[in-house]
Design a protein that fits this description.
5 strands; two-stranded antiparallel sheet; mainly beta; three-stranded antiparallel β-sheet; 79 residues
Length: 79
């Protein structure tokens, strides 16, 4: 099984702080012929905003966007 360590650098979309994260990728999807895109959720160490990163095993970032959690949306009370 193939294993890679990938360094991803991006700017926080909330506070603009520079963020760097190292992720470990492994599995059969890392073969040279595969067109793999992986996803990871990374919090900003400055403001805590969580980002969703889509990236290729070679370290190319495809997308950086705010992570949408599974928290329910608040609704006003009927009272």
């Amino acid at each position: 099984m193939m294993e890679l360590q990938v360094i991803l650098d991006f700017a926080c979309r909330s506070c603009g702080e520079s963020v760097s994260v190292t992720v470990k990728c492994e599995g059969k999807g890392l073969t040279p012929a595969a067109r793999t895109v992986a996803r990871v959720h990374v919090p900003c160490p400055g403001c805590g905003a969580v980002h969703c990163l889509d990236f290729e095993p070679n370290g190319t970032l495809r997308a950086v966007r705010p992570s949408v959690g599974s928290r329910p949306l608040l609704e006003p009370s009927i009272n």
